[in-house]
Amino acid sequence: MTNTSTDITMKGEKQQEVTSFKHLSASLSKEGTRTAEVRIRIAMVTAALARQSRLWTSSSISFPK
C-alpha cells in the first residue's frame, strides 16, 4: 500500500486522519479490511443469543409440536 496521505479540508477546516471509523453501523478501516466488523457482529450476535437463553430453557414456555 502506498502512502497517499492528503490534507482534506471541509469548510476551511483540516480533517483529522483516522485509522478506522463507523459509518451507517459498519466499521471501516484504513487498510480496507472487514475483520473488525466481523468480530463486532459476532460479539453482538453472541450477546443477543445469551440474552435469549433464558427463553429457550424456561419451563414456563411451551412450543407447539
What are the salient characteristics of this protein?
single chain, alpha+beta, two-stranded antiparallel sheet, 4 strands, rod-shaped
Describe the structure in your own words:
With 65 residues, this protein is α+β, with helices and mostly antiparallel strands. It has a domain at 20-57. The protein contains 1 helix and 4 strands, in the order E-E-E-E-H. It has one helix at 35-57, and strands at residues 9-10, 13-14, 20-23, 26-29. A two-stranded antiparallel ribbon has the order 1-2. The protein has a two-stranded antiparallel ribbon with strand order 3-4. The radius of gyration is 21 Å and the shape is rod-shaped. The mean pLDDT is 77.
Radius of gyration equals: 21 Å
Kindly report the average pLDDT value: 77
Strand coverage percent: 15-25%
User: Helix proportion of residues, in percent?
Assistant: 25-40%
**Tally of helical segments:** 1
Which oligomeric state applies?
Answer: single chain
Low-confidence stretches: none
Give the overall shape: rod-shaped
Cα(first) to Cα(last) distance is: 57 Å
Structural class of the helix and strand makeup? alpha+beta
What characterizes the major β-sheet?
A: 2 strands, antiparallel
Order of helices and strands: EEEEH
Strand order of the largest sheet: 1-2
The total of beta strands comes to 4
Please write out the topology.
Elements lengths: L8 E2 L2 E2 L5 E4 L2 E4 L5 H23 L8
Antiparallel strand pairs: 1-2, 3-4
